[in-house]
Amino acid sequence: MSRPQPIPFKPEKKRIIGHEGLKPLLLALVIGTLGGFVFDYLRMPLAWMLGACVFSTVAAFSGLRIGMRIRLRQGMIIIMGVLLGAGFTPDLVQRLGQWAVSLVVLTGMTMTGATLSYLWFRRFTDWDKPTCYFAAMPGGLNDMTIMGGAMGGEERSIALAHALRILTVVLTIPVWYRLVNGAQTSVLTMTHGPSSYDWQDYAILTACGIAGALLGRLLRLPASFMMGPMILSAIVHLSGVTDSKPPGELVAAAQIVMGTGIGCRFVGAAIDRLHKEMAASIGAAILLIVCAVVFAKITVAITGLDLDATVLSYAPGGFAEMSLIGLALGVEIAMVATHHLFRLFLIILTGPFVFRFGLRRER
Fold first, then answer.
1. pTM, 2 dp
2. How many other β-carbons are positioned within 10 Å of the β-carbon of residue 274?
3. What pLDDT does 142 receive?
4. Which domains does the chain have, with CATH numbers?
């Protein structure tokens, strides 16, 4: 019997990441949960997502049949959106003025980092200009993959570059804070869900999640399943309707699903055949991290903002992942979420125009 060939690495389909079927899903969740327990035992920040991410990535590269259903991941992202919205406090309006300068610097940092990454990919890969350009943009994996494919780029390479960027950032920043700053917060203690008598709060949080997801899809917001619930949750928390958050156990489960989903993206990615592209993608991610730290220090020198919050606000990770890291490290979630949403809008709105008028497409 011939040995089954791995499926080709590609961006998320409509229904599945990795292998399809119930058994690959259950195996992925078991592996991710085991990783979460191990990293929680080691007192790592963002332990459940980081552990699930590492263990599932190793499983994917080892050839295990694991997979993640998009619907399950979207449901857990809704929970994280409601949780992040709870970080918006009534003094947010007073803070917006302080963030104005930081958002301007973020714009310059995004342009600088994307340019350096583009030149890096042109130097160390055989990709064409469209592929290098959209692989270098620190935007959402799916958004950049779809845009890049429409502009003539190679979707597989763009998806690989962004998946490795997110993986590198998720593995680097929490570990740095654990080893250098001693950060070891557990999600089971950093969130407080409604008490057994606060059924009204449960109803409010549930409504924010469901209505927010529908609103996000209707308005076609980027990261709609997180952004919509986050906006509605922020509104009810800013208005003082509730101050509750989703229970810690539910947040841990959501992190396991999200971390496992990251690892499942590498199903079918053969290191021996993609080592050059993978090395270049990891190098570009490190370049973006260094760029974020340098610009964050410039911003702190100008504005006096908290350095940790500014670094996480500028870090080139995914919107959901960086917001969760900020939550785990106890920094100002509203600042981190606002900056990453601004970056997403900036790239999605300007990226295609800059490419169309600034670069000549290769045949």
1. 0.71
2. 18
3. 67
4. 16-353 (1.20.1530)
